[in-house]
## 1
Amino acid sequence: MLAFTVACGGEEINVETEEASGEDDESLDAEEVEGDNPDAQTLRISVGINEQHPLYDSAIHFGELLTERTDDFNVEVYHSAQIAADLVATEMVQNGDLDITITSTSPVMNIIPEYGVFDLPFVIPDEEVADEVLDGEFGDQMLDILEDQDLVGLAWWENGFRNLTNDVRPIESIDDLEGLTLRTMETDIHLDAWSEMGANPTPMSFDELYTGLQQGTIEGQENPYPIINLEGYHEVQQYLSGTNHVYTPYIFLFSKQIWDELTPEQQDAIAESAYEAREYNREITRDVAEDSLEELQNNMEFSEITDEEFERFQEAVEPVIENHSATIGEDTVNDFLSAVEEASD
Ligand code: TK8
């Protein structure tokens, strides 16, 4: 059992996980991508979402690309936080106890405050801008700062634009949010944003979310369409709103301690495979997002947010950038806003 505490929303959250011992644990369900080399080194990847989600498939695709490039490695992909939920998995990668995790950037802000920049709401307007910002100088700069924290950031993959679900009423206007209890990721910025919008948010690790919704501990949550659909939140939530309030990247994190033991050729093979799999990941994630929305519209009551209402949401969260600039770092916030502006032209 691995346990530690993170501070979020002025409260301490206890994070616990059953640490998986890996290879020989028959109780774990993983996809193995293997070459012919019996002496190959096994790289374990942990993802928090389930095996239906395009992230899992993309991680397997990474394994295929890597084993085509070299027979030095096998890859094992573990889904559904079997090894650990995002934040703990990231800590394990830092400590050299796990090779790779592909996580939302949001929990990473508990380790590297600059990573909160991606949580500022209503900044990235569409996927084209997201790609340009992440693939450009700003994205590189954000990858570079990981190294001081014993992490090697290899590629930006996609979680996507987040949308709101709940089980109380249709949310069409910001006024409808009043008092709604919402799960947010473990980031102060999302907590603050939803408080500014009038809801009653609470931070929770992703692996507790379905049960929280099912048991009614919380009334709503927000995630991209593929997650809402493939994790089955429509089974326990009736209403869906197209809020598109923030874009969450997935980041491919490799353990620096393990990385430093590899040869430059091995490092290149891994880096190139992670980078190459990015295109595949974005493509399938976007396809699945479209299909997921269609399916969700059949299973939930869907509300579009009118342009007028969208502006009211945006106005309500204006203080959030100012409130969190000092924590994230003024320079990082300004670089991010400039990169988005440039990409939007
Ligand atoms: C899955 C999480 C998830 C995130 C969340 O591991 O916690 O709501 O959107 O994707 O990273």
## 2
Amino acid sequence: MNIVELQQVGKHYQGVEALNSIDLSLQQGEVLGLFGHNGAGKTTTIKLILGLIKPTAGQVRVFGEDPTGDNAYQLRRQLGFLQENVSFYQQMTGREVLRYFAKLKGCDKKQVSDLLEEVGLDHAAMRRVKTYSKGMRQRLGLAQALLGQPKLLLLDEPTVGLDPIATQDFYHGIAKLKAQGSTIILCSHVLAGVEKYIDRALILGQGHLLAEGSLATLTEKTDLPVTFSLQGSNLQLPIDLQANSSAINGGYKVQVSQQQKMATLQQLLAISSLENIDIHMPSLEDIYTHYMNDVQHGEHA
Ligand code: ATP
């Protein structure tokens, strides 16, 4: 059984076509990165999976059931959700907030201490939330999402407000949850650093599915070039590479197709005046930009 299944899902708000013919299936233990520009339809997708709204077309199934159906209450106990810009009751301590949510979710309060420790907030557990920094509130939000060991986690901009080390810690946490069998949907505008931790990416543009697949699949599909940055005094490039090169910072930038990568590398390493070489493979950011350029040129419709 797929944990999440969207079949030809559409969502219209008054006058706005927020989502159009979206297909998605997620299996247990998969981590999906959900990406798109502002207003692309990411939050709408999350709300549909949470059962907060109904689709106007198609079908949404979570653990094989309609998330807005009669059994939705039971189903939601298996879900964890961290919303964008999370906010809590300012006068309560971190521990009180978590104990409150544990009660609402009907899960064991004993988890609270462990979760506070896991997100690095045990030292501040007895402090009121109003004294927390943005990153601390975000960590508390993550602890709240992890209450009840959810089988499906939906995280909207989870690393906003986290410093680089905390962001790394967060992604390590994601890897750990995945290893324990959790299925995770991760929405983010910050693409750098995400790619290592997701199995697949789904890119939305103006409510349409622009691309879906593993990074390897999308790299192959987009056929974006490999970039070599070369430094050296009096560098002379082989004639056949000159057409693909441009001068940068006293050196050269050479772009070739992924198929030509190894042959080009061998050619470049044979240049005696070459002093340094950097190789840039297409990143998730490059792939995202490629599809967003298509949206701007109206090529998705
Ligand atoms: P962001 O990255 O800015 O959070 P998003 O990808 O999450 O954007 P959505 O919030 O899903 O985008 O919105 C998709 C579209 O639907 C937008 O055009 C938005 O204005 C519209 N929309 C969302 N909710 C409503 C609503 N309740 N009523 C009318 N339009 C809505």
## 3
Amino acid sequence: MRETEHEAETGKRPLGVGMVGYSFMGAAHSQGWRTVGRVFDLPLRPVLSAVCGRDGAAVRAAADRLGWAAAETDWRALVARDDVDIIDICTPGDSHAEIAIAALDAGKHVLCEKPLANTVEEAEAMAEAAERARARGQVAMVGFNYRRVPALALARQMIADGRLGTLRHVRLTYLQDWLVDPGFPLTWRLRKDRAGSGALGDLGAHIVDLAQFLAGEPVAGVSALTETFVRERPLLDGVSSGLTGEGSTATGQVTVDDAAVFTGRFPSGALASFEATRFAAGRKNALRLELNGSNGSLAFDLERLNELSFHDHTEPATSSGFRRILVTEPGHPYLEAWWPPGHGLGYEHTFVHQAHDLLHAIATGEQPEPSFAAGLSVQRVLAAVEESAAKNSVYTLVAATPVTV
Ligand code: SOE
């Protein structure tokens, strides 16, 4: 992207961003790109060059609403633009691999929403393309934004510093309830051909990535159960979903999981448990975790994301217990750029931090995390969960006992 006089004076090199997709994640990423330069002092200034979507009128309206200078209806034209240096992929998983590999091969940096892909094979091809691009000085990152909650970045630092001692338990749940109503229509997230999987890839991907991020090691093995509670749902509009004729009121098959429950083991011997569901009535976006070690425990609840609970087991039992760390000090991750202590951040700030970390990596030539290789590692855990659940092999039936419990 060409530099203006002003940019030459401020020393902030402009970097053009091109975003594919403009729904929930597109809006969240746009917030990150618009805000990052106003909060963090970086040698690069992101320019929202163009946003892309198939529906011309809708994407032009989105460009206006979200602050993008132009609109494209073909992602290939977006990748070809000279004023785009970063391709930001905010589409359903079935298009991640094609767009990311083309963008990397065209010399662009890439940010790709999670999960990295719909299959391990796609994720492997993406990781290989990212490796090739790395040699050319390009970076690629996956949008596991919860790593950038300051409280969770602090948790990782504390664990790495040994504050928990040897990890024994890694326990995460991610609970939502937007599918409890059987009348909720068959959207793309409920179709395997579009989303790859259901709660497992959407919510489970986050907690698998966080487990590995916090533990500092990959999950080595899993045993799993998955379930689809509501197997048939009304079609949004037959034509738009491509499944039936104009204005159909027919139903369609749900082809993904509604919930996944699985255990895991780390190479260090620590045990993990995971639960991802869209049927936890009353839970809106409840990502919760607790890690227990030989010297203490950490606990976190996304619905109270400025807080981290810490128990130091090395303290005398008569005065120890979980205490709340309010993660708003300038010495906490990312917080120096924001408000004075106690003023708190929210969900959207994780996308500002994500934009910061990507731009910082481009400016310094470092590899940002999570890399596509980290995204592939998560994809392999998701595939193992699906394989274990399909085999049902590790699920041992308990002999029936004629008793009222
Ligand atoms: C699912 O509804 C969802 O939007 C996920 O796709 C996001 O990754 C998560 O951050 C919020 O919930």
